[in-house]
Design brief:
By secondary structure, the protein is mostly helical. The protein contains four helices and no strands.
Length: 85
């Protein structure tokens, strides 16, 4: 096995000192703790990043004009290439 890849994949387990053979006991202890107090823990309040704004939707006419502008630019580019040859 690739030892480096193992260390990358299971870095958090290695950091916590959890051995592969100890996972079953870990899960059992976690389930036991949940059974003792099933109420959810307090959640941290997060504030979303308000700096990002989505662009407004383009109307049908604006979309068609944009596509036509791209077509015109491509046609002009192809005509310029054919003139050079």
């Amino acid at each position: 096995e690739d030892n480096q890849k193992y260390k990358e994949c299971f870095a958090s387990y290695i950091e916590e000192g959890v051995e592969p053979d100890g996972l079953e006991e870990l899960y059992e202890s976690v389930h036991e703790a949940i059974r003792e107090d099933p109420s959810p823990s307090a959640k941290k309040d997060i504030s979303p990043d308000k700096s990002y704004k989505r662009k407004a939707k383009l109307s049908l006419d604006e979309r068609k004009a944009r596509v036509q502008a791209k077509k015109d630019a491509k046609i002009a580019e192809l005509e310029a290439d054919s003139d050079d040859e």
